[in-house]
Amino acid sequence: MAAFRNHGGMMPQEDEISQLMGEALELFRSGHLDRARRSSERAIEMCRELTAAEPGDPQHGRVLASLLYNHATVLNRMDRRPAALVAILESCRLYEQLVPLDRLAFKPLHADALTRAGTTLAALGRAEEAVAYQRSAVAAYESLPVNGVVERGLPRALALLAASHDANDQPEQAISAATEAVGRYEELHARDGLPVDGASYYALAARTLSRLHARRGDWGAATSADAVAVGIYRLLVEQDAPEYAEQLAAALADSATNLSAAGRPDEGVEQVRDAARLVHELNLRFPGRYAAAVSRIDAVLAAVRTSW
Per its UniProt record, what Gene3D superfamilies does this chain match (predicted)? Predict the structure, then answer.
């Protein structure tokens, strides 16, 4: 889930905007998306009024950019992609205008907004434009001194760029971006453990690599990438996140197919069997919580046993 951005440091006359922002966040987290949207829209309207009244105050632009970013998050969750795109593109423009005021503060926010814009464009099927925005996001992160924000943001942008290149039928560029993303995530994983806020993007990059290598018949590279994706999703499922069972099942199915093509079908079956044991154990430990995961992984196991 895309996180809401905390705009912080509100001026006294912006107290109501801050309150609306907090309200929208709580409503979003509790799944009341339409109410979150209305609170967000009211906050944006009030911020525009402040901006019009005090056009020279950059604080209002900063707050408005953040509100629009968060509004796009709500709209994307509601599958209102065109409206989300309008909001995130305006957020991008505002952050770009703010960068000269404090590059180190606003450039990472601009890069993040560019990443989100690219993701929204990709969801709308506008792959070429998505590539352009993701490239801009990567370039923005690469222009910054390395810190925790950049270490997390750059591989995420690279993973999304790879997926957009793939959708735009640019396999060489997709492999390059995905390989770099996986490499950077591997470094973070080795140093700090699995990057929880980036795990799904880590797996996305690995699955993109697997798909691209499989198309070329490079089964060794494909199965290596599969092992990364399966390992990440297993860890997430095991760490009390059964909602990742669907992604784990898909990664297991792809891995089994690629292992079979590589002449190693028994490894694919054993990999799925091991995952099935895991979710059955978790469902015994937490009755009912992993029931859907058990059903989904068992279905994959039945399919691979039948096929091989």
Answer: Tetratricopeptide repeat domain
